[in-house]
């Protein structure tokens, strides 16, 4: 097996495409983020790497709350748009026709059209160079009823968007089922 070194140092495939929400000067704003993931379970913790120049980060600092909204494939245009335009110049909520609601934290805007919404309180902000790693405790999770099966989130109904990073830079839906987690690996046990 031949290996070569490649330039892109952040090559992970796929990445998520989330919509990060914050109230900036009292108004809801959302930005797309691919550099995000779950960091802990007890308490439940999510992280997002955000450049200091982002308008959304201003709002996160103001309230120390934010949201992580999981768009489905039918929101791909809106998800991309929120990663192109800045809320400092444009009302992205109006352009995208997002229906915004608030949960128990009251200052973290959530998008009704996104099937899953995490409502978060900032635990830490860590300077990691180009980005601020925002570490958030997930205080509440909201899910659209039509995306549940037997009361549990169903990924086939959620239809999340994945982001394929450089050089392709495109969005893809999830692929096919390939095996049971915590199960298929047992076939290698002797
Ligand atoms: C697919 C995609 C992924 C992105 N991921 C991130 C990210 O993880 N962190 C970040 O700071 N910006 C990321 N961006 C860029 C911001 O979403 C973009 O600069 C946005 O306009 C910021 O909006 P705001 O100024 O309203 O906060 C991404 C953009 C796209 C299209």
Overview of the structural elements:
The structure is a single chain. The chain is mainly β and 190 residues long. 13% of the residues lie in helices and 39% in strands. A 7-stranded antiparallel β-sheet has the order 3-2-6-9-10-5-4. A 3-stranded antiparallel β-sheet has the order 1-13-14, with no helix packed on it. A hairpin with a 5-residue loop joins strand 13 (162-164) and strand 14. The longest helix has 9 residues, at 55-63. The two termini are 27 Å apart. It binds flavin mononucleotide.
Index terms:
single chain; 190 residues; mainly beta; seven-stranded antiparallel β-sheet; 4 helices; 14 strands
Task: Give a nutshell description of this structure.
With 190 residues, the protein is mainly β. It is built from four helices and 14 strands. The longest helix has 9 residues, at 55-63.
